[in-house]
Amino acid sequence: MCWMSKIFKKPTPFKKPTPLEMSPSDWLPLKAITSGNGILIVDVNQLLPGLAKPPKIWIPSIPATGSMLWNFSHEHNNILVAGSDEIDHQTIIDYLQIGDIAVYEPSPMMLIIHRVIGISSDEQGRYFIFKGDNNPIEDPYRVRDKQIKWVSIGTIF
Residue 130 pLDDT > 80, yes or no? Predict the structure, then answer.
């Protein structure tokens, strides 16, 4: 299967995993995780190969919206990454697949963290379709690459 078919295929529904079906190894390759003395170390270079510089990392507390319940909730901390420059940031966005979680900015000063449920294209190029796991319908935006600000690589419960 050509890598382009992942980007330009028709959106498919995403099955929401239950907490019993999920574990950290579902999100992070085992070779990227090490621990010792109660410290967890995630090797971002293993997760996101091809970056020229180390990525920016942000670990915000999740607001109390409830839109992503079952995966994370109010006061959990999400581990987010962004490229340190425009080229590296585009590399990170190019890794996004259906089922991944990202933060996007649909309008100035508004950030939304939801799951990618579709990837498609139109005359303006590629766009992503997002939906909160606990929301009944998808978000009303066609999210372009430049609107994606952060990509989630994990959650601290």
Answer: yes
